[in-house]
Design a protein that fits this description.
InterPro entries: ACT-like_dom_sf, ACT_dom, Beta-grasp_dom_sf, HD/PDEase_dom, HD_domain, NT_sf, RelA/Spo_fam, RelA/SpoT_AH_RIS. This protein has 756 residues and is an alpha+beta fold. The chain contains 29 helices and 19 strands. Helices cover 48% and strands 15% of the residues. A hairpin with a 5-residue loop joins strand 6 and strand 7. Helix 1 runs parallel beside helix 3, helix 3 packs antiparallel against helix 4 and helix 6 packs antiparallel against helix 7. The protein is globular and about 85 Å long. The relative contact order is 0.06.
Length: 756
């Protein structure tokens, strides 16, 4: 036995030393100053601190910090300070050492980064809010001082995603959902394109394994034809570049499984209908660095003589780089095979920044010895936006995450002020967003705007190149309806802050009304009493109830007293009768439904790691939300709500995405175990060329050939084209797919997609 332990220790030491040596070799090959001593010191300290601890996968825990440091060094290009912080990032959280200990041994800078990476307990958002949102907030606060905090956090998340297979399914959905909702867009915003793509793909792989494997298989089966297209398309381009005497490299860029699936979902198309799977990248090394922009355009002129270019698809990110530093010239050309192919033209420097993000900028700072420089204006602007959001904390975790997500991750447009200054704004922003981006006073008193010298309302959406002048009035006040059409985090945060300030006054009045009502009827003012009244009036919380009382939209009376004394008949209360997810039932099933099935309530000792199985018999015990209409065959998960009941959502549902991010510990793995006894609603959209008999062809396939009950059918025809929706009763997603495949074969039907 002792021999086995010794052998295990020897194998572990070899593994650990090999991984650390690989990290040192990578670091020594980089352009950073060679501070090997402090890195070795951090490694030995972390190794000792984590001694004897193993990960779920069984390997020594120290392998995780080494892997994170390896990613930080090799894939993000960070230096010694970051590598040390990566090696130490779990020490304060998982061992008895404190941030003070780290500061005493390694200095304040490393300690500050480690502190930013350490999870915290307690809550700015209150008891019910999620620790995840809390940790994210701390991360962003620290990041405002040092961007390396978030860069290392992304490296940490990438390694966790790469080793996710050792986690139970409910944890996989929580971590994958959080990654897709926050970390992949964050990586994108920081220009870490390679890491962003890998995070998206790994999340997709765990949340939708069947779709992931299916797309991977299709990409593999079409590889030969793609390679042939690439070779034929690039041959004349290579010839032209050689004649110009340019030092270049041509790469193919294949769309990732996640982005293909995303497009299939958003555009309602099949894999075969996606035409931009292949793109071509021309990466050149300029003779003079200052000539690289001109060289991009020279290459564009040369290749557009070979192939016709698409006039609407020229994207110039050279003179106006994206906010994450991305620079390139994108042009779409028509190949000899009749396919549009996007060509991305960029220098080697631009390519490195596109893959490694802001970290790569540091390599091109002449004479700079520091890893991090403060003069990235776009990045600083972004960090300033985060600080502004954090200055006014949202009362709810979900609001906070939404605010962060709203515009930090959006694509950009360029808008001009009346004086001709350029401002970068998120795509889809309105005149009111623009007003708030300049100044809170301007936004809160905005009555309209002039866009390109024409008068427009506050809700007018801006386009790239617009010149915007904001019109204000002292009598104007922030309206609650504004929240519905602003799209930037800053505008939304400011509007909510002003509305909350106004709301507090209203809530004060509501509290006085409530106190008077309870005192008059000799009822104690407790949290349970208020919760009962809030539930009875179908408002979310105490604040909303008091607000409504103050605004007189809720009036307290006899029914409220009956509710508090338990005298109300449940069948008369609005919203009591539960909607079951299936509608087409037999008489026997309808009879059984008259005895209401109680919701399953999760007990204290419930094993959250095991999957729950939804069967024909217990389906009524779960809540099916209308945000995503899950039916058998969909990838689903469970969520334990505030009343300990289980909601069922599709894994790709936008509401579920927020739940995974904010309340990950309440996520459950859910699976279907149905036997085609019950019916569910599925809605199919069908479009095509109108002709006599098209409706008869559609209905005869559904009703006669497939014997499926049509619940609702509506169709409109205009200028020779038709557009229709069919609501059907099906057993599962497979039934819906069979129907859709049959409908696609009808002559003149051009598009069949699923609405829900």
């Amino acid at each position: 036995m002792d021999e086995d332990i010794k052998n295990k220790e020897t194998a572990d030491n070899e593994l650990i030393n090999g991984a650390f040596q690989h990290l040192l070799d990578t670091y020594l090959a980089s352009r950073h100053r060679k501070k090997v001593d402090i890195i070795t010191k951090a490694f030995n300290f972390a190794r000792q601190a984590h001694k004897g601890v193993r990960r779920l996968s069984g390997e020594p825990y120290i392998m995780h910090p080494i892997a994170v440091a390896q990613i930080a060094c090799e894939e993000v290009g960070l230096g010694s300070t970051s590598i040390c912080a990566a090696l130490l990032h779990d020490v304060v959280e998982d061992t008895d050492y404190t941030t003070e200990d780290i500061e005493n041994i390694f200095g304040s800078k490393i300690a500050q980064i480690v502190d930013g990476l350490t999870k915290i307990s307690g809550g700015i958002f209150g008891e019910q809010a999620s620790a995840q949102a809390e940790n994210f907030k701390k991360l962003l606060l620290t990041m405002s001082n040092d961007i390396r905090v978030i860069l290392i956090k992304i490296c940490d998340r990438l390694h966790n995603m790469r080793t996710l297979q050792s986690q139970p399914a409910n944890k996989q959905y929580k971590i994958a959902g959080e990654t897709l909702y926050i970390y992949a867009p964050l990586a994108n915003r920081l220009g870490l394109n390679k890491i962003k793509s890998e995070l998206e793909n790994l999340s997709f792989q765990y949340e939708h394994p069947d779709e992931y494997n299916s797309i991977k298989a299709k990409l593999a089966s079409t590889e030969a034809s793609r390679r042939e297209l690439f070779d034929q398309f690039t041959a004349p381009i290579e010839e032209a570049l050689k004649k110009m005497g340019i030092k270049y490299e041509i790469k193919e860029r294949v769309k990732t499984p996640y982005s293909i699936w995303n497009k299939m979902q958003n555009k309602h198309v099949t894999f075969d209908e996606i035409y931009d799977i292949l793109a071509v990248r021309i990466i050149f090394t300029p003779e003079k660095r200052e000539e690289e922009v001109n060289e991009c355009f020279n290459i564009y002129v040369a290749i557009s003589k070979i192939y016709k270019s698409h006039p609407d698809r020229l994207r110039d990110w050279l003179n106006h780089p994206k906010a994450n530093g991305y620079q390139a010239l994108h042009v779409t050309l028509m190949s000899k095979q009749g396919r549009w192919i996007e060509v991305q033209i960029r220098s080697d420097r631009m390519d490195e920044i596109a893959e490694q993000g802001f970290a790569a900028h540091w390599k091109y700072k002449e004479g700079e010895e520091n890893e991090y420089t403060e003069d990235e204006s776009e990045l600083n602007e972004w960090l300033r936006t985060i600080k502004e959001i954090l200055d006014d904390p949202q009362p709810d975790a979900m609001d906070f995450l939404d605010a962060i997500k709203l515009n930090l991750f959006a694509s950009e447009i360029f808008v001009f002020t009346p004086k001709g200054e350029i401002k970068t704004m998120p795509a889809g922003c309105t005149a009111l967003d623009f007003a708030f981006s300049i100044h809170t006073f301007l936004g809160s008193h905005c009555i309209g705007a002039k866009v390109n010298h024409k008068l427009v309302p506050l809700s007018h959406k801006l386009n790239s190149g617009d010149q915007v002048e904001i019109l204000t009035s002292k009598s104007q006040h922030v309206q609650p309806s504004w929240i519905n059409f602003v799209s930037t985090a800053k505008a939304r945060a400011k509007i909510q802050a002003i509305l909350r300030r106004d709301g507090r006054e209203m809530q004060k009045q509501g509290e006085e009304i409530l106190n008077a009502f309870l005192t008059k009827n000799e009822i104690e003012n407790t949290a349970a009493t208020i919760d009962k009244l809030a539930a009875f009036h179908e408002v979310k919380n105490r604040e909303e109830l008091l607000q409504a009382l103050g605004e007189k939209t809720i009036l307290l009376g006899e029914k409220d007293l009956d509710e508090l004394h338990g005298k109300n008949n449940p069948s008369t209360i609005k919203g009591w009768r539960r909607l079951v997810p299936f509608l087409g039932r037999s008489k026997q099933q309808k009879k059984e439904d008259t005895t209401q099935q109680e919701f399953f309530v999760v007990p204290e000792n419930f094993n959250r790691k095991k999957p729950i199985y939804i069967t024909d018999d217990n389906i009524g015990q779960y809540k099916f939300r209308h945000c995503c209409h899950p039916i058998p065959g969909d990838d689903i998960l469970g969520f334990i709500d505030n009343k300990h009941r289980i909601e069922i959502h599709k894994r790709a549902c936008p509401v579920a995405a927020k739940l995974k991010t904010s309340y990950g510990n309440r996520i459950l793995d859910a699976k279907w175990d149905m036997h085609k006894k019950l019916f569910f609603d599925a809605c199919i959209r069908i479009q095509g060329i109108d002709r006599v008999g098209i409706v008869m062809d559609i209905t005869s396939i559904i009703s006669s050939q497939l014997n499926v009950n049509i619940h609702k059918f509506s169709i409109t025809s205009e200028e020779g084209l038709f557009d229709g929706s069919i609501e059907l009763r099906v057993h599962d997603r497979e039934d819906a797919k069979i129907i859709m495949d049959k409908l696609k074969k009808i002559e003149d039907v051009k598009d069949v997609s699923q609405i829900m």
